[in-house]
Amino acid sequence: MTQHTLSVLVENKPGVLSRVAGMFTRRGYNIDSLTVSPTEDVDRSRMTITVDASRFPVEQITKQLDKLINVIKVRDLDPANMVACELGLFKVSTAEAPRAEVLALVDIFRGEIVDVTADSMIIQATGTTAELENLEELLRHNGLIEMVRTGVVALGRGGTTT
User: Rounded CA gap, 126 and 110, in Å?
Assistant: First the structure.
């Protein structure tokens, strides 16, 4: 899989997300993850979109995004020249697995326990997509009840804006 991370700077207006998602739908492209957040400018938002470019030509996707009204800038981020991470919350049953094993995994993946009850705990972890996928897999063998992940957020390195 050839994963590409697109940083799409857009106007902070109603309907922009719908137009971007609609463009992907019309073209038959699949979005692997999508994160939308405010930027340092209250009039702009940043969409971080990850796509599998082995199935869809990333150049075509960026050209189509550039044509959309309200899209200010599209950048295909270079994996060697970006900082990217995501957040995951994982609820684990402590009735099924020994707490010590779960706590060891939390420590290895630099996570933290954000909630504890008599029969479960919620783990918060940040890292690369691969790191969170590894943690998820290990937690599946240790009583994973449910989980949620934010999707990738990323910025290009250096002094220029993404």
Answer: 8
